[in-house]
Amino acid sequence: MDTKHTDRRTFLKSSLSTAAITAAPLVLTARKGEAAQAPGATAQPAGEPRLRFAAIGMNHGHINGQCEALIRAGGELVSFYAKEPDLAAAFAKRYPKAVLAKSEQEILDDKAIALVVSAGIANERAPLGIRVMKAGKDYLSDKPAMTTLAQLAEVRKVQAETKRIFSVMYSERHENRATVKAGELVQAGAIGTVIQTVGLGPHREIQGAGGRPAWFYVKEQYGGILTDIASHQFDQFLFFTNSTEATVVASQVGNLRHPDKPGLEDFGDCMVRGNGGTGYIRVDWFTPKGLATWGDGRLTVLGTDGYIEIRKNIDIASGKQGGSHLYLVDQKETRYIDCKDVALPFAGKLVDDVLNRTETSMTQKHTFLAMQLALEAETKAHKLAPGAAPAGSRSPSSQG
């Protein structure tokens, strides 16, 4: 993030609020039939749509958030396709104006459709994206956008050949107002030069009566915990440190408390070093039932002149309601910044990129590097045995 031409003092005076917009939050569940249980759909804005898009694959409820973001940005959801009749029915109920296509190919052949979005089973997202790009369309995938380094290599190859956009909805940054505000503050120099990010992504395994779908417990399909959940944290590390190159220093994963689900990795952490700073990442499936939301996600951005802490979904200490809580500590004071009116620019910029063939929403290099780091961390990870403490920890009895 270039701060050379930013007037820090002027920016900070005006940074406490931005243009307000209304938006349904991104649905962060993967329940059976989750599309039917999600909040209501955003109304289509009046007037001619900026672009027309379609959805293929709705195995994760994130598909609703992807569609909502594009509709807010002036896109029109015109058609969709799902192999699973129950998912198609739930999606049709939520988006009654969209037409159920007879096949994936029908959507790929429709020249009026500029962009395809997908939250299919994770290991099917990259192959779909390749077909979409070869059909001359742009693509927005849920994370993780691929589950193997081989898939990433093929996606990079086809994207370079076709010059189409292959984007990923890293929703913890793109659709979280406090994280967007933190980016603005860092760009303004509010905490000096960024040194490190610490990203925590705890999740609750069981949400709702239906539970998680079967593919969620098959590593070949979901990609592993660092590939899946931690792709969010790798994206944020690159963004806030302004790193364009990075290396995984160490990583570890394990199934520490789910012996009945051998394919599940319920814990993972990683150290990463980039050409703009360092990072630590921890993700898990251990959110206790006593928490009022699915996960107490946190992001700390440490700078030379202060730090920012984001409490993404809940603030258990203050009693403040909802999510997107931001605390800024600098050389003068500690303050809470209300982010409820912060705009979410990603989808609008993506629509601009589709129309203008630009890279204002997120560069292709960044998109791929975030997934590369997640995949490399998963591939290189030390495997923790059930009941074993993560490397570097000690039992209470051994502490002085």
Plain-language structure description:
The protein has helices at residues 8-14, 34-37, 62-72, 85-94, 104-109, 125-134, 149-162, 171-174, 177-187, 219-222, 225-228, 231-241, 346-356, 364-380, and strands at residues 51-58, 75-81, 99-100, 115-119, 138-142, 166-169, 194-202, 246-254, 267-274, 278-284, 298-303, 306-311, 325-329, 334-338, 382-384. With 400 residues, the chain is an alpha/beta fold. It has two domains: 21-170, NAD(P)-binding Rossmann-like Domain (Rossmann fold); 173-345 and 378-383, Dihydrodipicolinate Reductase, domain 2, CATH 3.30.360.10. Strands 14-13-12-11-7-10-9-8-15 form a nine-stranded mixed beta sheet, covered by helices on one side. It has a six-stranded parallel beta sheet with strand order 3-2-1-4-5-6, with helices on both faces. Strand 5 (138-142), helix 7 and strand 6 form a beta-alpha-beta unit. The longest helix is centred in the last third of the chain and has 17 residues, at 364-380. The chain is globular and about 55 Å long. Residues 1-38 and 395-400 have low confidence and may be disordered.
